[in-house]
Write a structure and sequence with these properties.
By secondary structure, the chain is mainly alpha-helical. It contains 11 helices and 6 strands. Helix 8 (203-224) packs antiparallel against helix 9 (233-248).
């Protein structure tokens, strides 16, 4: 990078070539602010956050459908059940976020429905989506535990993609940072307390990359861990993702409730790590007594073709 900077500052670097070099060094020095937040298509405004959520949902549903077919589940009506679960997930996510900032939404109740501005709590999404999937799934021929297993990598994939929406909204960044991977944030999106700072921790990117790594781990577990208890990957996902939040949350500077000086989500994450591991251990121990495997039980549960 120093070589590029030196070249840009020499007489030979004056002009268009020098401008290009300075742009390149700027890109290498920091992560630039997003070039757009929304896309204007004729009279329509396509919100970047919403588009990102849409891609994340489609990718997750396609993965879940593939996984259920792998477990010999009839997925003819899966997409209907999937969109019902997504609807409950959005409802839970928004309610969790609103509950996290009650004073803000009490003053501006019209903002409760403005989900394109951001503000979806993942824990509320998981709780709401799990209710929708586990309650309505069997009514559409989708076994609860089969869906729970593939939902783990499916959720992680959706979260990894969805965090790009936070980048487009210039939100959920962290403390000021002076490093080559620091994120540039436009002045109007900076909190007043750090308005004089220009670059920050890209905490959404940290979480996105960690979720992507966990996605590959859980996909491998889904495909290769045949002696697991059906459905056990979901509580393990809760514990694994909560570990990610424990790592990332202390770096964030967005408004949040605190209990005893610690952000609310850290307490929630710590509790869910313990709960997820306890539930997974109990499920696995109970299932181990049967001496079966996921592959064997899935095959045995498949009715013969008529």
């Amino acid at each position: 990078m120093r070589i590029l900077e030196a070249a840009a500052n020499t007489p030979e670097g004056v002009g268009s070539f020098g401008t290009i070099l300075r742009m390149l060094t700027s890109l290498l020095a920091t992560i630039p602010a997003p070039p757009f937040q929304n896309l204007e298509v004729g009279p329509l405004t396509l919100h970047g956050y919403g588009l990102t959520m849409g891609v994340a949902i489609v990718a997750s549903l396609m993965l879940c459908e593939w996984g259920l077919k792998r477990q010999h589940v009839d997925t003819t009506r899966f997409m209907t059940a999937g969109f019902i679960a997504i609807a409950f997930g959005f409802l839970g996510a928004r309610l969790y976020h609103v509950a996290s900032e009650p004073s803000r939404f009490a003053e501006n109740p019209e903002d409760i429905l403005a989900i394109w501005q951001g503000g979806l709590g993942i824990y509320g999404a998981v709780l709401g989506g799990a209710f929708g999937a586990l309650f309505f799934g069997p009514r559409f021929g989708i076994p609860r535990r089969a869906w729970a297993d593939i939902a783990a990598p499916g959720l992680l994939l959706a979260q990894a993609i969805g965090r790009i929406g936070n980048y487009l909204n210039q939100e959920l960044f962290g403390k000021p940072l002076d490093a080559w991977w620091a994120l540039e944030v436009d002045l109007e999106h900076r909190p007043l307390a750090v308005a004089q700072e220009a670059t920050f921790h890209p905490t959404f990117l940290y979480e996105s990359l960690l979720n992507l790594g966990l996605f590959f781990v859980f996909l491998a577990l889904y495909k290769r861990w045949t002696s697991r208890a059906p459905g056990v990957l979901l509580p393990l996902y809760v514990a694994a993702y909560s570990t990610v939040r424990i790592i990332v949350e202390p770096l964030r500077i967005d408004a949040a409730h605190e209990w005893f000086g610690v952000r609310q989500n850290v307490w929630v994450a710590g509790t869910l790590i313990v709960a997820g591991l306890v539930v997974a251990i109990i499920m696995q121990r109970r299932y181990a007594r049967t001496g079966s495997s996921v592959a064997a039980s899935s095959t045995a549960a498949t009715p013969p073709a008529s």
